[in-house]
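Researcher: For the annotation table, I need structure tokens for Chemotaxis protein CheW. Please keep the output clean. Sequence:
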Amino acid sequence: MTPPEASVSAVPPEAGQGEGRFTIIGLAGWYFAVPLERSAGSMEAVTLTRAPMAPEAVLGLTHLQGRILTVLDLRHLLGLGRGGPPRRFFLVNDEDEQVGLVVDSVEDIVLVSPLNLDSIQVELPPGVRANASGFFRWRGHPVVNLSVERLLK
């Protein structure tokens, strides 16, 4: 992993929401950022136990360090269509529990000052826009900040 300072385009602090640390994840050709305080790590995908009558976004349950982990299909939550079999779970803290989100990759941890979402020059799918709270550029790519609160409600 490269140091955060080496991998982020400079963004003036007055341009956005204030400086913060974010974990960058990759999914379906997009890059998303989750606040570091909500990030709880990642793991290779494991076999899941189906949860009868659960919402479509719930792929299943697994056991992690003595706790039940609910795994959600992030593509479905963001309206990005169906993907292949899960390869990686990104763990996020949701109040009193951790939730796994299926992602393609976990890329980097960065220190940035996100810009307001209104200034992004990329058309966002409706599900992405509904769960976004800002964006920044990383290695020449736009990275959309995800609002974990909105995403998991």
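Researcher: And a one-line annotation?
Model: Helices lie at 4-7, 74-78, 126-130, 148-152.
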